[in-house]
Each structure stands twice: as C-alpha cells, then as structure tokens.
C-alpha cells in the first residue's frame, strides 16, 4: 500500500490489506482521501483546558482541518471530552498526555523542542505574529492556555514566538475553541498551498491508517492476534 523503509512497516502494510476487508470499500476510500491531508508539521498543545465543551471543540477542529497530534497538559485540571461535541473526533487523532509529574508543561515543551518544533504561544498580549504572518517553514507547535488565566509563566517563557488574532471590538479575546479553529484553519490553508513538505511520511500514514482501521472494527484485537499468529509474528506492530 505504501512504500516502506523497515520490516515493521511492511508488517503494518500487510495488516492494513488484511483489515480493510473488514470494512466497506467506501469507508476505506474515505480513510485514504482523509490521510492525504493529515499533517504533523503543525501540532496543538493544550495546557490545562478543563471545560468539556472547549476541550471537545478543539479536537473536532483539529480533525476537520487535518491536525493529527494534540499534546494535552494536565497540571491542575483534568482534560475531559464531551462526546456530543467531539462527535468521535478523538479516535482519529493522536492524543499525547502529560500528567505524570510536577512539571508537565516543561516536559511537554522540551519534548517538542527535541522533535524540532518551534513553540508559538497564543496570547492577546503580544504582537509578534498573526495567523496570516506567522512563518511556517519550521515545524510549529501552537500552545493554548486555560480558559480563565491563559498560558502559565512557564509556557510563555519557553515560547519561541507569540501569535494573536487581530480584533477591533471591545472584547479582549475569543473563546478558546473559536480562536483555535481560526488559527488551525488559516495556518493549514496556508500550508497546503505552500511548497513546504507538510504531509505525513509513508510510514506515518501506514501507522495511522492501521490505527484508524483498528478503531473501526469490532474485536479488532482478536482479528489482529489471529493474523499475527498465522504468520508467526510475535509482536503486535502497534504495541510498544
């Protein structure tokens, strides 16, 4: 299905061919058309977002506009999703949780820096960039803060740049779910018409396609186990 660079990717492709027979052709074609527009060139970071409506709406926007990875920091607040708002979008995304220590924000942002991301904090109090002027040549992580207080001092200090949505009314800021949608839509539209290599690699597409298939098939764990046993493959390709 996809050109591969290592044996595990080849196994993934075999398994994709096997599992796609468990869903309709129309659904698999939808998977193929959708994954072409997925990107990790832009990623989202959500710090202490706690209102279920906002948490869910941001995930829905990420899915709609092709953002594959969402990094969720839980310091004081637990990230909760309202299924009526998210409409199942979370199962199509990679949610990376940071909630295991005292310095979850720093851990998340340091991890992204190691992956080559430029950290861009969203705040109405800085004037560096707007969604139309932010440079996109480097991989970019957009950081959103809590609904009431915004980003923590740690996040602001670690940020490489700042971005805001220009407004002309009396109100200082937008609801986080609205502002996230504006940022994502504008930036992904700019990305798709650029010459920047923003799409997923073949191996990344294969891995995500396999996850989507497994999330769409009842008792997929049993089907995958039988597939692996029949080929004498000892390890599940999606397990660490």
Q: What is the C-alpha radius of gyration, as a whole number of Å?
A: 19 Å
The CATH topology of the largest domain is: Alpha/beta knot
Determine the number of helices (DSSP H or I, runs of at least 4 residues). Answer: 9
Main β sheet profile: 6 strands, parallel
How much strand content do the residues show?
A: 5-15%
Question: What is the structure about, briefly put?
Answer:
The chain has 240 residues and is an alpha/beta fold. It has 9 helices and 6 strands, in the order ααβαβαβαββαβααα. The chain has 2 domains: 7-35 and 200-230, no CATH class; 42-192, Alpha/beta knot.
Overall description:
With 240 residues, the chain is of the alpha/beta class. The chain has helices at residues 7-19, 25-35, 52-65, 83-86, 104-114, 153-158, 176-192, 202-216, 220-230; strands at residues 42-47, 69-73, 94-98, 118-122, 140-144, 161-163. Helices cover 42% and strands 12% of the residues. Helix 3 (52-65) packs parallel to helix 7.
SSE topology sketch:
Blueprint: H1 7-19, H2 25-35, E1 42-47, H3 52-65, E2 69-73, H4 83-86, E3 94-98, H5 104-114, E4 118-122, E5 140-144, H6 153-158, E6 161-163, H7 176-192, H8 202-216, H9 220-230
Helix pairs in contact: 1-8, 2-8, 3-7
Provide keyphrases for this structure:
globular; 2 domains; alpha/beta; 9 helices; 240 residues; 6-stranded parallel sheet; Alpha/beta knot; 42% helix
